[in-house]
Amino acid sequence: MEDDDPRERRPPEERERALMKALPRVVSDVFARAPGFRRRDPAVVPEQITDRAALAGLRLVRKSELPELQRADPPFGGLTVVGAAQAAKLYASPGPVFELEPRSADPWRASRALRAAGFRAGDVVHNSFSYHLTPAGSMIETGAHALGCAVIPAGTAPTEAQAVAAAQFRATVYGGTPSFLKVLLDRAAELKLDLSSLTRASVTAEALPGALRASLADRGVRVLQWYGTADAGLIAYETPAMEGLVVDEDVLLEIVRPGTGDPVPPGEVGEVVVTILSGDHPLLRFATGDLSAILPGQSPCGRTNVRIRGWMGRADQSAKVRGLFVHPSHVADLVRRHPGVRRARVVITRPQDLDVMTLRAEVEPQERPRLAEALVATMRELTQLRAEVELMDAGALPNDGKVIDDQRPVG
Predict the structure, then answer these.
(1) 107: closest CA among 17, 223, 233?
(2) Which CATH code of 3.40.50.1100, 3.40.50.2300, 3.30.300.30, 3.30.530.20 fits the domain covering 324-406?
């Protein structure tokens, strides 16, 4: 048995009672200190939010509406209980969406996922997530520090430099995307560097195909995944049983029908909605835009919380590419900036286990020489990602209203 939090193995009825006891207290605190929630639900009596049915009566906060809310009431739309000056770190993710990191140990609660993946005190963590304006790098780092690990803050440094550092410091565990873990191991092999010390990995921000997991295991690295967002922190995590993702102990999870706030029957696919009952950074009914479903029963690992099937696609047309979100608004902004583009869509594929983003744009032939490089630059500015560009004739794109076409396999 792992050295885990005893709460993870308590009877489900005990957990539900504890969640429902905390719920009205957290709602009252949020409504008192985060005025954006009161503006959204002026008639709510927080003390009456004592069960899941009452919680379902609160309006959802959708990721897609955060940019507008934050422009109207900077910096966080009135949806946080602390201000920018009281935060430890401040972030600006593509969207733009502005986030904060509380001044506390393990503020994103990521240590639970890392511990389940085998991270322990004394491990050396190779952290390949970005440290620039987005919180993923800090999520891994703060969670690892809470467990007593040392961290290599590799971020987005050149792959060769990362491989050399991981070998020099004898990294034992990895945090980042699964696709970059493969790239890192491949580069180390090309350089004839010894990375045999790296045996465990905790990955997130993109899908983990079974074939990629198996190929990494063949190279001596056991890979487990977790699921979270920059707004909510850890939501659910995989355990060595590898049967679904166990919901975090500080998360009250709902699966709702996409486009509504109505909970769906257990097992039905719907949108993931979370209420975070953390005192540092609580959040009420945050709609992630991700699809999943609740699995029946409990995990064979002994943890008793609800499990979800993992990421099953997007409830809207937004998509996560190499750890960063790409939204329909990005495509709309690009078309507005370049009048020579009639219509456009982003197509996302994953050849050879690497995300590839392609912008397909309908452009008149005489405009193509002028626009080709400009569109690449605009996509990078809007999304912080490089995109391939395919210029097409007018009418070549399907007339189906789709602006982001995610063609990556799930699972």
Answers:
(1) 233
(2) 3.30.300.30
pTM as predicted: 0.81
Give me the half-sphere count of Cα atoms (radius 13 Å) on the Cβ side of residue 89: 21
* 189 touches 215 (CB < 8 A): no
C-beta separation of 98 from 91 below 8 A:
yes
Domain ranges of the chain: 6-315, 324-406
Residue 79: both structure tokens together: 């949806």
Strand-pair category, 324-326 with 319-321: antiparallel
SS3 of residue 330 by DSSP: helix
The whole-angstrom separation of Cα 186 and Cα 163 is: 9
Type of residue at 72: A
Phi, psi of 16 (to 5 degrees): -65, -40
Q: What is the mean pLDDT of residues 68-92?
A: 97
What letters, b where the CB count within 10 A reaches 16 and e where it falls short, cover 20-30? bebbbebbeeb
Domain 6-315 part of CATH 3.40.1350.10: no
- State mean pLDDT over 158-174: 98
